[in-house]
Amino acid sequence: MEGTQAGEIPLSLDTFAGKVQFRWVPEAEVSSLGQMPFFIEFLKTSGVFENWVNDCPLQYTSPNAPQKRDVLGTILLSVLAGHWRYAHISALRGDGVNPELLGMTKVASEDSVRRALSAMKEEETGPWLKKHLKASYEPLLEEAWALDMDATVKPLYGHQEDAKVGYNPQKPGRPSHVYHSYFMANLRMVMDVEVQAGNQTATSFAQPELWSLLDSLPQASQPRFVRGDCNWGTERAMEGAEQRGLAYVFKLKQSSNVKKLIAKLFGNDHWVDAGQNWQGHDSELQLSGWRKKRRVVVLRRPLREAVAEASKSRKKASKQLSLDLPEALYGGVLYEYAVLVTSLPDEVLTIAQHYRDRGDSENNFDELKNQWGWAGFTTHDRNRCQVMARITALIYNWWTVFMRLGIPDKHAEAITSRPLALHGIARRTRHGNQTKIEVTSTHSKASVITTALNKVSAFLQRLKTTAEQLSQRDRWRLILSAAFQFFLRGRVLGSTGRLVEATG
User: Fold this and answer.
1) CA-to-CA distance for 501 and 395, rounded, in angstroms?
2) Mean pLDDT of all residues in 76-84
3) 156, 209, 157: which is closest to 180 by C-alpha?
4) Global pTM value
5) Are the beta carbons of 184 and 214 closer than 8 angstroms?
6) What average pLDDT does the segment 169-173 reach?
């Protein structure tokens, strides 16, 4: 029909349920991220988003340029939506609900976001993002905590700055960037991430940033110990920790002298239980390049029968000796070995458990790379990759705290928490001075998350009422105390006061 838009023409569609009347409504204020208003309330009450936007060093001179709140709000929505490419930002343009709730005037285009990140100077973005990353976890440092250090590789497929060939177990020979990262153990909060060239996976490249981070903390906020894999079991890393009075637990590589130590302990009967079918033995070792002897804990456990038989068959076929570390045959049993170097005075069982707990940092990488976009948002220059890595880490921290408020007894990974607590069909209607948002969740556990989100909103409402005179920092302390109440057993961070008394 002339004068009638295609979207306004009603259609009759023949389905298995019979004919249905179908009509496009492009002007409706709807969103597929229907439960986002709960998270926006969290951001407003805590003040973290407002402070982040206000401190942003982005400046425009053109009157036609987007506002920095629009740019940062667009990045926030994109990261939360699970995007990993700038091109995915276009999918947000039809959201008629959440941008306005964030105080935005519009959703910025993907080109606007790229140009905005490019316009910010590296010497300004670093302090800005480090400041707000630190603010997201700083009150937690008043409790006893441990620091996990690790690195992950991001393969690259174009001509990016610092795309170098280095250690890349998944894509050997593929240029990459390496993300040197630091986490609060068990809480899964990111402290910082540094993007470097792909051939700089060695911990010597990470240590300047690490020591700078730790040196900036007051003595009372220092970690009880630091831990890392075999890449961190070097003289330089251990000496750096010892100079700062920091305890450490590192794994050692299976060098020839380490193998000699294991062989020496074969017939020793002083192995003690180290938990989870492991046995441990205390010893001392001084490798070439070490300036002194250090305590080492040798761990072993028998391999599963099927694995052991396969390994024995391989050795027999190749006529190898029985000593083939890190697996070794002794007394008819095939063992696998690991050697830890530590400055902690704890018993063997505790040391072994500390290192086993370090495996949780691998879950952090899996979540951040595959569910939060650390493997994406790639640009030609390294600086924008660095900025997006830290922004993603910051938003991840906020979302982790938000989900802990609703589900305090466990960490909910994004692959399950976003569909559960974010996705839903929302429709906004306005009447007079009132705005109403109606949401329908299609999740099978909709009733469970409805209860959890209502609980979070009620807590935030009480916080605004009972803690109205508190500063933003003190409000965030109470929010973190509630989020991590499972670890704090109901205490307020840094005190003996009870959370229920502080928040009503």
Assistant:
1) 29
2) 96
3) 209
4) 0.91
5) no
6) 88
